[in-house]
Design goal:
GO terms for molecular function: acetylesterase activity; monoacylglycerol lipase activity. Pfam families: Hydrolase_4. Keywords: Hydrolase, Serine esterase. The protein has 377 residues and is of the alpha/beta class. It has a single domain, classed as Rossmann fold. 40% of the residues lie in helices and 15% in strands.
Length: 377
């Protein structure tokens, strides 16, 4: 049985593409070898949960390691219209900023930052193609002080829109493209939905996208096949985040009372749905988790996307079920390409049996390059 589990992902390793066939999409795919090949996962990471476990341990060592080099950044603080604070960590920033021709903007996952391994592999791959890279950090993330009674969440579309406009205004001649991972993918994709023809990004790669947040929250708690471990894993992450927010948010006792936020009750949350219902939704101005999740989701609005988008999803993702991947919508919008693999977990996609390295950044950057070169021609 174990041997079969190891062998099956190696055999069933073909990449599947779902898209509306047009001259543009066919041209893009023809320029992207990794979209037409196979993904061979690390043989001993033969299911999605194993990818997640490895990702959370050896796959997330900060700084220089045998798995990923260190990246040096220049930090820029950006103050939002309401007085809130975000920041950008810039990589490969030339002395003469007028020479910047293309900028890759990264929206990390819920706990991600510029030092996360899965972010650094994107940065390194992009630098190979001569991109200047901007990693976005939301309110309260990566040591950003909370200056207003608002935290980073899955509905941070306005914040992302503002900071992307900020980048565009500083570098009006540069082509802007994006890569989002997990929650960051959801935010950037919804940003593309909401901005339509006015989107400042020329293209987007969305990795492990939560197209339908409510389903993801409930799926993570399912007993089978991972015994509810994904939900517990995410809940622990959210609890850690809330503990960093708590002393800062207690500067606004009246606001906490008005929203009905009780940190002792939040600490007793039984699931990450429960946590979002008690904290994230309330502080973000929603009645509860369902309303918050509906606002964050893009599943029913993909027809509004007007820029080229590549979405990469793994069918064994233990956090985001393959059941809600919107295949039909991708086949109806000529701007979209959906790429699925049978194995890869959640922002994992480790390959190589002796020294596992991530792979997903290769098709992402390859796709963005193909779009830019096609648009230029």
């Amino acid at each position: 049985m174990l041997i079969g589990s190891i062998i099956k992902p190696q055999i069933a390793s073909h990449i599947q593409l779902y898209y509306k066939r047009t001259n543009f999409t066919e041209s893009i795919i023809s320029k992207c070898p990794s979209l037409k090949g196979r993904f061979l996962p690390t043989c001993w990471l033969f299911n999605g949960m194993l990818h997640v476990i490895f990702e959370g341990t050896l796959g997330d060592i900060p700084g220089e390691s045998i798995f990923c080099p260190e990246v040096l950044y220049t930090k820029e603080q950006v103050f939002l219209p309401d007085g809130g604070l975000m920041s950008i960590d810039w990589a490969n920033l030339p002395q003469s900023q007028s020479s910047i021709s293309k900028i890759l903007i990264i929206g990390p996952g819920i706990t991600g930052n510029s030092d996360s391994q899965y972010v650094r592999v994107i940065v390194i791959e992009a630098i190979k193609k001569n991109y200047t890279v901007a990693v976005l950090h939301g309110r309260g993330i990566a040591n950003n002080e909370l200056l207003t009674f608002k935290v980073h969440c899955a509905c941070a579309f306005d914040d992302y829109a503002y900071i992307i406009d900020h980048i565009h205004s500083k570098h009006p001649k540069a082509n802007l493209v994006g890569v989002g991972t997990s929650m960051g993918a959801g935010i950037l994709l919804k940003y593309a939905v909401l901005t339509g023809e006015n989107c400042k990004l020329k293209a987007l790669a969305a990795v492990a996208t939560p197209f339908y947040h409510a389903h993801a929250a409930k799926n993570a708690e399912n007993f089978w096949p991972y015994f509810g471990l994904p939900g517990k894993f995410i809940l622990n992450i959210l609890r850690r985040i809330s503990k960093t927010f708590q002393p800062q948010l207690e500067k606004w006792p009246e606001e906490l009372k008005r929203c009905g936020i009780d940190f002792s009750d939040i600490g007793k949350s039984k699931s990450y749905y429960d946590f979002d219902d008690k904290f994230t939704a309330k502080i973000s101005g929603f009645k509860g988790a369902e309303e918050y999740y509906n606002e964050a989701s893009s599943i029913n609005q993909l027809y509004k996307v007007k820029i080229p988008v590549l979405a990469l999803s793994s069918l064994d993702d233990p956090v985001i079920s393959a059941e809600v991947i919107p295949y039909k919508e991708f086949c109806e919008n000529e701007k979209l390409i959906l790429m699925t693999t049978n194995n890869g977990g959640h922002v994992g996609w480790f390959t190589g049996n002796f020294m596992p390295k991530r792979w997903f950044q290769v098709p992402c950057v390859e796709y963005l390059e193909a779009v830019l070169t096609t648009q230029e021609n």
